[in-house]
Specification:
single chain; mainly alpha; Arc Repressor Mutant, subunit A; three-stranded antiparallel beta sheet; 6 helices; 3 strands
Length: 147
């Protein structure tokens, strides 16, 4: 097949479009993260902890979409920087749990204001109904692909 010939694909490249959408949204968030010396992964961890409190490391990995070996390094750096604490679960010593420190919670509070402002801008620009449709469609795709 030469470069001029049409590809056999019938549909647009959905994974690429989802990545482009993610990058477009993150372009507004990253400068704020960098001001606080946070990586995208560190922010995802803090967001999970901010939404859920103390969390078992496996759940952090799942909800922050960070593979286990990578999560270990991320948590080590976050602990070193005073953003989180890790300890053994009192109910099951085999499990490690993670909690945000006071500094970590303060960053969540600070950054959530910036992020919520951007989401509000998106809602105002797209319209409340379209943003709700976007969330519903993304939830439906996630559910569809998990079955």
């Amino acid at each position: 097949m030469t470069a001029n010939q049409a590809t056999p694909f019938q549909h647009r490249n959905l994974p690429r479009l989802l990545l482009q959408a993610r990058e477009a949204v993150m372009a507004h968030t990253r400068p704020s993260l960098r001001e606080h010396a946070l990586s995208d992964q560190q922010w995802r961890v803090l967001r999970v902890l901010g939404e859920n409190g103390t969390v078992e490391t496996g759940r952090v990995a799942r909800e922050a979409f960070i593979l286990g070996p990578s999560l270990t390094g991320v948590l080590t750096r976050m602990e070193r920087d005073g953003l989180i604490t890790r300890y053994r679960d009192a109910a099951d010593q085999r499990r490690t749990v993670v909690a945000a420190t006071e500094r970590g919670h303060a960053l969540v509070a600070t950054l959530s204001t910036t992020i919520e402002t951007h989401y509000q801008w998106m809602e105002n620009t797209l319209g409340k109904d379209k943003l709700a449709q976007l969330y519903a469609l993304l939830d439906a795709v996630i559910e569809l692909e998990q079955t």
